[in-house]
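Task: fold both queries, return tokens.
Query 1:
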Amino acid sequence: MKAMVQGGLSRVAAVGTCLEYGLQSGPLAETLPARPVTPYGLGKDVLRRQLEALSRTLPFSLLWCRLFYMYGPGQARGSLLPLLAAAAARGDEVFPMSGGEQLRDYLPVETVADLLARAALSPGAEGIVNVCSGRPVSVRVLVERWMTENGWRMRLELGRYPYPDYEPLAFWGDASRLFAVLS
């Protein structure tokens, strides 16, 4: 990165993760401090801090896009919605999952790609920007919606799996800054 900036690159758009926020709850704004608790979140936070330090010594603008939850083509097979699709394809009658009360911020990967491109091309956009919908949805509602949209009929075995200890129950992005950058 340093060599590219020294070579004349004037703008860097990089991708972070909502896991940089750690265990903070509710609508998460970019003004909140990063408090990562996972190796992935910590790695992204360290990268952002290094890029910010570099931007203070070399002339370039930095846009750090914190992605929230996404789904769609290319998603890991062990993720919730691919597991749901696999269970439906096998003809399972029951889908085991957590209690489903977690509030999350989900977007289709195509929408995330569009928002990333638009933010990166927005003149003057710099600093941290959440790439999210700004609308929390419960995991249970998301699963039920997918089942309805795809005509899948399975009983949900709610509470089979515990809630993850690395995410709070309510965890979604504040999209105000994103909307301002894109307007």
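Query 1 returned. Query 2:
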Amino acid sequence: MDRATFACSTAFFRDFGNSSPGALPGGHVDFIDKADSFTYSDFFRDYLIPNHPCIFSAKFTEDWGSRKNWVTWDGKPNFEHLLQKFGEAVVPVANCDVKEYNSNPKEQLPFKEYVEYWREYIRNGYRSSRGCLYLKDWHLSRAFPEQDVYTTPVYFSSDWLNEYWDAVAVDDFRFVYMGPKGSWTPFHADVFRSYSWSANVCGRKKWLLYPAGQEEFLKDRHGNLPFDVTAPDLRDKRIYPRYSQSQPPLEILQEAGEIVFIPSGWHHQVHNLEDTISINHNWVNGCNVAVMWCFLQDELAAVQREISQWKDPMDDWHLQCQLIMKSCTGIDYKEFYNFLKVIAENRISVLEKGLDEESSSQNNSKAAISTLGMLHAVFDLKRTVKVLSSLSANEDFRKLDLTSLSPSPEALLQHLESAIDTALL
């Protein structure tokens, strides 16, 4: 992060920063062709801050091991290589032909069985009595860390979700998807309203993107989002009374090797137009951590409404609401505090290391912060302070037993503010 971008981001996020643009000016999605003329600061300033999508050309992935080894000479999945490397793995597979709670039901299959199904599906003209099966949300990198699959592009390297979950060694948000032509993912927004990036190793995808806020016009009369935004019944005003007020989706045709950046909070639906393999990360950083926090508050409020009748007779009602929220979203308020703490402590380490190096070379600290890492660390700490202050003042958070949190939220805030002041001297 250069100084100009640091100044721009600090000014943009002077307030809380929990809102996102509701539309993309002109309805145009930029195509980034060459890495040597596109910097991290360019991406941060032009796409992360305004929360706009973009497409990166296949040049950004041409050196990946998966692009070289997982694909045949004619651009198809290299089943033999994949079976050799991952044949004994057990993978999550969704049935695209079945709707279950506004999603597709999943089962666990041996990877070799899924590849056998896929080959037969192709031979039968993309038909099967088992339906259209789609390998989704496979934590391949976690299961096979020794494999040369891909390198995360620098533009997506400020990734708080995976930084935290790697630290606690519980989970991650790095996935591989593999599916035949016709497989698809229903209408949704990503976990915690995070960003996502998705790279096609081979094949083609069609993306239908709706800017944050547009999903409100797509809800039915009961307040439910559609399963499939291409279904004709959306035009029935008796079922979807506000559909006519919605904007047409942004449509992206993603080719082999290309990477699509999906902004925070944008709902989308994705169709595989060919046999396709893709790599996807969900991620949060200083630009959208406030969006994540607002999402968690909305989720808790929904749980509280759902079990409001038990508030008086249940002594630990507030704790039960947290437990239910965590079972639905994967995180509760106390873990969100720990999430912020881990990120903050890591950034303080960056600042302290930089300042130590500067003092040993007898230069002033301002020179240290001019480096990319130092400026980014300060920006991240500023955003963490904003969200942590809101969390600490939150009524539902303060009703929890916080004695197990170390340091206390108040002490952590004081430490962060002191670290920022010292770094900016």
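Both queries returned. Flag for query 2: The longest helix spans residues 333-360.
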